[in-house]
Amino acid sequence: QVQLVESGGGLVQPGGSLRLSCAASGSIVRIDTMGWYRQAPGKQRELVAAFDSSGNTVYADSVKGRFTISRDNAKNTLYLQMNSLKPEDTARYYCNADRVTLQFGTIYDFWGRGTQVTVSS
C-alpha cells in the first residue's frame, strides 16, 4: 500500500557530491514528516536531515553546511543533496516517513530499504 524507494547512492571521492532521492508511492493522502537517516557498520542509525511537521528543516551537526534536504510534494519525492563528502559520511542512507496518511489508514515510522553511500579515495 505504500513504498519508499531510495536511489542515487554510490562510490564517490572525498570532496565529491551525490544527490539522493526517495520516491514515495501508494494511495498517499498526506505525509506529515520525512527525513534521511544513515547507519554505518557497527553504529547506531542516526538522523541526517528531516522536515518536521511544520515544514522546517533539521540537520545533524555533522552535515550542516554540506547537506541540503528538499522535497517535491507534487512528485512525493524527497531529496538529499550531499556536497563536500567525507569518508565519515560512508553509510547506508534510509528514507523515513513518520506519519503517512493513506486513503483508509495511517502508517507511522515507515522506512525505505536504503541506498549505500561510500566515500573513499
Task: Describe what this molecule looks like in 3D.
By secondary structure, this protein is mainly beta. The chain contains no helices and twelve strands. The strands form two sheets. Strands 2, 4, 5, 6, 7, 10, 11 and 12 form an eight-stranded mixed β-sheet that branches. The radius of gyration is 14 Å and the shape is elongated. The mean pLDDT is 95.
* Radius of gyration, CA atoms, in whole angstroms: 14 Å
**H/E topology pattern:** EEEEEEEEEEEE
Please give the number of β-strands.
12
Q: What structural class is derived from the secondary structure elements?
A: mainly beta
Q: What is the molecular shape?
A: elongated
Oligomer: single chain
What is the overall pLDDT average? 95
Characterize the main sheet: 8 strands, mixed
- Beta strand %: over 45%
Return residue spans where pLDDT drops below 50 for at least 5 consecutive residues: none
Helix coverage percent = under 10%
Q: Counting H and I runs of at least 4 residues, what is the number of helices?
A: 0
- The span between the termini is 41 Å
Strand and helix map with partners:
Layout (H helix, E strand, L loop, with lengths): L1 E6 L2 E3 L5 E9 L1 E4 L2 E6 L6 E6 L5 E3 L7 E6 L4 E6 L8 E12 L2 E7 L3 E5 L2
Parallel strand pairs: 2-12
Antiparallel strand pairs: 1-3, 3-9, 4-10, 5-6, 5-10, 6-7, 8-9, 10-11, 10-12
